[in-house]
Specification:
heterodimer, A: 595 residues, alpha/beta, Metallo-beta-lactamase, Chain A, Rossmann fold, 4 domains, seven-stranded mixed sheet, 31 strands, B: mainly beta, WD40_repeat_dom_sf (chain B), WD40/YVTN_repeat-like_dom_sf (chain B), WD repeat-containing protein 73 (chain B), Wdr73 (chain B), Metallo-B-lactamas (chain A)
Chain lengths: 595, 365
């Protein structure tokens, strides 16, 4: 049976780096190429030696698929192409292709300029890498080569995130990447059709989590902001240009309007320009409400949220500011932070992950004093809040996805084996599906049944149908078609014998088998024939058995009895090759009777 | 799935009403909530094909950390630690804290099923053995130390099980008038077991060491066609040393009547609530639940009548409803959902409803 092989790459128990090797139908596909943000050395990259110990990897990997622009899914891609040397096809959605280089460059800057790392990919590496990328559209079937086909499905989660369906021959796999089964304020919910893949691959992090509702996390955010501005404090929200900033702005705008709040809310101008452009370009990737709103007005044309000016930093009184970059490692957000941190009435809300070494990471670890390059020391008395707004599916979501696409097997990657035991049992109980949970570096082999789709000739179908309908109805009776499998060019068709002969341009030959039995039965041969008729009728109740001109016939099988009254009778049994089974059975029956 | 416009008002108002609010949706309704230790909780879900799924989750860090550090903690999710399925439909469970052992009274089982909650190497909650007894699907009560009381519908005896050795260590013969009624047991102190007559609301207190009846308490308001249940303040305290001072007994009827009594002064009702505001539907579906707040505040909570949890202050004779958690059904239209269980965790409450929701919340005092 053909197998599917899956190897999650990585080292140890890490869950922060997605990179999965998939082999099916002789093709090797890399699913995501993420970086582990917690490590500063080679451990941050996937261990590519699993693919091949040495030599160019292009010959071993038929294509790379990137699900979305988060760095734990694409952060190692420039390294893979420009340092390791992969030069094969890379696929991702259009928004991912547009946004990934921005995040890669941001990350590179932090690593090199802030942390002083030398062995890192360069800006040029990022640009060269992205030149190799082919962008795909949702639901568009893309042939990587003559055998390997891929298709992207909407995943929600972030702008441009996709789940990928991959097919080679009759085998198919769906890789989810990160996805979200419930819509949020600017993105829709993940969706996939009932594609019935041989295997569904998902991150196990989600399968073992029950997520707190998004409304509660938003409520927590609004509560913290409101409490801060109520005491006259200022709220700084460092954000990335793209991602949750838009979501939080929509949230605050709605709240401010409902509560009739007058405290000013600002966003950094650079944030809005870039975001606006990308949302305009990829409006079809947002949800219906956003699309409808955008037709009427600009994405950032809010009533209560206005562009920020640096001069406002020292304004008295409460305010809320969205500023980039998201990890407080440079730019406006850091400038504002330095001014506001010493005031205990103020607050900073970190809505995302911060790389080690950044000011964001330090404050999240409780640092009360931050020293900068110019020996400036800033006391951190402001309240520090860490919130997660990422839109991930959870255990309930993965069960829903399994229901949607009806895979034949499920695989959960990047998880602890012990914790997966119960989940495997639950998936088995609920869906009767096998669930695989390979450790990083461990290969799972999934057996799939070979399924070759063929055409069937209408004539053959009609003939079988007539035969089936002529018999009394019986839902348990199997429906069997006898035909000839004709492979012509690239099509395969089951057709009846005559059609096949015509197709092949050959004459049909008939083969008839004859066997002779000796039987002791005194009396006329017609009487012997009568006895044999009753016997055959009794055994072949569903068949049309008749006696005509002294010969018993069942389909093409003929039984003829010859001999005088006192002589041993000769029973001739003959049949066409297509009734081999029936003929052999009747022969055996008569032989037994003869004995 | 949230409806943005319908829920907005409720969530905006909740900003002032709650210090903490976490909401979760599961794929099956939760039947029982039992804390395993300070950091984890076991949820037993409604049965499917006569078996219940039992899952152990780590508690969200936002719930467990000290309030002053809550801001630096972004984790607000349940994480699955282990899971399994019961042998039969679960009637009641008790977790023996610190031993990773769960005892379950199950339908049609004479005795108890024992389940092991794994700690490290396995993710399966598995059935280890059955403690056989003559009691069919018994009701359970645990004194937080080493005794488990079991009572069944035969009501001839209360069996006391040593939870360290899993052997029967004593029996209490109930009095004649109790043999005809349904009895619910609950410890009111480490060695005092209360047996509540569900029809009359009267509670007989037995000393488990001598197997003798010490006293009897009655609810203030006998009410026809109601069922009663009880809880004690002893059960809510986390430290045994503090428990000795805890002497409150709470009685709750399916008509919404709440009585708080002091076991040292059985004739006097400390506080009472006549339950005018609660619509009683629990007789058809659930037995309602009453719980005392574990902190020093004179607070108790009730559930099982509708989708809400009610918190009362019983510091005066006229009990006062001070908070209603109505998050399980945020619409003002009538709703057929009912809360299935609720428990206190420090100053927060964890509540479950049959609409698949589980909430962790702390109202603003």
């Amino acid at each position: 049976m053909p197998d599917i092989k899956v190897t999650p790459l990585g080292a140890g128990q890490d869950v922060g780096r997605s990179c999965i090797l998939l082999s099916l139908g002789g093709k090797n596909i890399m699913l995501d190429c993420g970086m582990h943000m917690g490590f500063n050395d080679e451990r941050r990259f996937p261990d590519f030696t699993y693919i091949a110990p040495e030599g160019p990897l292009t010959s071993y990997v038929d294509c790379v698929i990137i699900s979305h622009f988060h760095l734990d899914h694409c952060g190692a891609l420039p390294y893979f192409t420009e340092v390791v040397g992969y030069s094969g096809p890379i696929y991702m959605t259009h928004p991912t292709k547009a946004i990934a280089p921005i995040l890669l460059e941001d990350m590179r800057k932090v690593a090199v300029e802030k942390k002083g790392e030398s062995n890192f990919f360069t800006s040029q590496n990022v640009k060269d890498c992205m030149k190799k990328v082919t962008a795909v559209t949702l639901h568009q079937s893309v042939m990587v080569d003559s055998e390997l086909e891929i298709k992207a499905y909407y995943a929600g989660h972030v702008l441009g995130a996709a789940m990928f369906w991959i097919r080679v021959g009759s085998q198919s796999v769906v890789y989810t990447g990160d996805y979200n089964m419930t819509p949020d304020r600017h993105l829709g919910a993940a969706w996939i059709d009932k594609c019935r893949p041989d295997l569904l691959i998902s991150e196990s992090t989600y399968a073992t989590t029950i997520r707190d509702s998004k409304r509660c996390r938003e409520r927590d955010f609004l509560k913290k902001v409101h409490e801060c501005i109520d005491r006259g404090g200022k709220v700084l929200i460092p954000v990335f240009a793209l991602g949750r900033a838009q979501e939080l702005c929509i949230l605050l705008e709605t709240y401010w309007e409902r509560m009739n709040l007058k405290v000013p809310v600002y966003f950094a101008v650079g944030l809005t320009e870039k975001a606006n452009n990308y949302y305009k370009m990829f409006i079809t990737w947002t949800n219906q409400k956003i699309r409808k709103t955008f037709v009427q007005r600009n994405m950032f044309d809010f009533k209560h949220i206005k562009p920020f000016d640096k001069a406002y930093i020292d304004n008295p009184g409460a305010m809320v500011v969205f500023a980039t970059p998201g990890m407080l490692h440079a730019g406006l957000s850091l400038q504002i932070f330095k001014k506001w941190a010493p005031n205990e009435n103020n607050m900073v809300i970190m809505p995302g992950f911060c790389v080690v070494g950044t000011v964001g990471h330090k404050v999240l670890n409780g640092a009360k004093k931050i020293e900068f390059e110019n020996r400036q020391v800033v006391e951190v008395k402001m309240s520090v809040q860490y919130m997660s707004f990422s839109a991930h599916a959870d255990a309930k979501g993965i069960m829903q996805l399994i229901q949607y696409c009806e895979p034949k097997n499920v695989m959960l990657v990047h998880g602890e084996a012990a914790k997966m035991e119960f989940l495997k049992e639950k998936i088995k109980k609920e869906f009767s599906l096998d669930c695989y949970t390979p450790a990083n570096g461990e290969t799972s082999i999934i057996n799939t049944s070979l399924c070759i789709p063929i055409d069937v000739s209408l004539r053959l179908l009609k003939a079988e149908s007539m035969k089936h309908n002529a018999l009394p109805p019986d839902p348990k009776r199997s429906r069997v078609m006898h035909g000839v499998l004709v492979m012509k060019d690239s099509s395969t068709c089951l057709m009846d014998v005559d059609e096949a002969c015509r197709e092949a341009g050959i004459n049909r030959h008939f083969v008839r088998f004859t066997s002779t039995l000796r039987m002791e039965d005194p009396g006329p041969s017609s009487k012997t024939a009568e006895k044999l008729l009753q016997l055959i009728k009794a055994r072949l109740k569903d068949w049309h058995v008749q006696l005509t001109d002294g010969s018993i016939s069942v389909e093409s099988v003929l039984v003829k009895v010859e001999g005088n009254e006192d002589e041993q009778k000769s029973v001739y049994v003959s049949w066409d090759n297509q009734d081999e089974e029936l003929g052999s059975y009747i022969l055996g029956l008569l032989q037994t009777m003869g004995q | 799935m949230d409806s943005w416009s319908d829920d907005d008002d409720w969530f905006y108002e909740s900003i002032k009403r709650y210090d903490l609010l976490l909401m979760f949706d599961f794929s099956s309704p939760v039947k029982f909530i039992e804390f395993n230790d300070l950091d984890s909780v076991c949820l037993i879900f409604e049965e499917e094909n006569c078996r219940n799924e039992m899952s152990c989750f780590s508690l969200p860090k936002k719930l467990t950390v000290l309030r002053e550090h809550e801001g630096l903690e972004k984790d607000s999710d349940f994480r699955l630690l282990s899971g399994g399925f019961s042998q039969k439909s679960v009637i009641q469970v008790k977790i023996l804290k610190g031993t990773n052992t769960m005892l379950a009274s199950e339908k049609d089982l004479c005795g108890l099923s024992v389940y092991k909650i794994p700690s490290e190497n396995s993710g399966i909650i598995h059935h280890t053995n059955t403690i056989h007894s003559e009691l069919l699907s018994p009701k359970l009560a645990h004194n937080k130390l080493d005794s488990l009381a079991m009572v069944d519908t035969n009501k001839k005896n209360v069996v006391l099980l040593d939870t360290k050795e899993f052997v029967v260590k004593g029996k209490i013969k109930t009095e004649e008038n109790e043999e005809e009624s349904v009895i619910i047991p609950e410890f009111v102190s480490p060695h005092s077991l209360g047996l509540c007559n569900t029809e009359t609301g009267s509670v007989s207190i037995y000393d488990t060491r001598s197997a003798r009846k010490c006293s009897m308490l009655h609810s203030a308001q006998p009410f026809p066609k109601t069922q009663w249940t009880l809880s004690s303040s002893f059960l809510s305290t986390s430290h045994i040393a503090d428990s000795n001072d805890e002497t409150k007994l709470g009685l709750l009827s399916t008509s919404g009547i709440i009585s708080v009594l002091d076991t040292r002064n059985p004739q006097h009702t400390l506080s009472c609530e006549k339950g005018k505001d609660i619509c009683s539907r629990s007789a058809k579906r659930n037995i309602p639940k009453i719980q005392f707040c574990p902190s020093k505040f004179p607070l108790l909570s009730i559930s099982g009548f509708n989708p809400n949890i009610y918190i009362y202050d019983f510091s005066s004779e006229n009990m006062k409803n001070i908070f209603v958690h109505d998050g399980h059904h945020r619409s003002s239209s009538t709703c057929e959902n009912i809360t299935t269980d609720h428990v206190w965790y420090k100053n927060s409450v964890m509540s479950a409803c049959d609409n698949l929701s589980v909430h962790c919340w702390e109202y603003t005092r």
